[in-house]
User: Fold this.
Amino acid sequence: MKDPDDGLVPLDQELAVIERLKQGDRSAAGELYEWYGDRLYRRVILPKLPVRELAEDVLRDTYRVVLEKIHQYEPRGTSIFFWLRRIAINRAIDVYRAYKRKRRLRDLAPIEETIERTMSTPPPPPDRAPEVAQTRDQVNQSLERLNPRYAQALRLRLIEDRDRDECADQMGVTVGNFDVILHRACKAFRKVYPP
Assistant:
């Protein structure tokens, strides 16, 4: 039964439901939803994401995350509501940003079409091949002047655009060690690259 003072379920009831959920009892998720779903939706999600359909999706996603990560939840003498609220807030912020970005792009499309219709044919882009080739040569010469490990780290991460885990694996070091090598390599490169 809910405590009328704060709207939260007593901790002992919550702990029993959480334990059932951790044991795989999906009906326990229904109880969590019954207790806190409306409160999350109205007081947490809608104020951050005032688009009803998206807010409903966020609520659903919040409970999906709860089912996936319930084994990571550690009760610390406070209601699980606060954990649910943090998940909902993070998801609402992510969805809101994506929504705003999509709207911004949609709003820009008519402007781009208008510009395209009203402007004459744009001039051809300048031939930058000689400049690119010169820069590539300068980079390669500078890399040859570096410690081979530094040069390898820079080539893997910045030229080949590999992710950090892959770079570390290729060099036979941990990701943390790779980050240190890359940091030092960048400092060394700045000293040898032409101004």
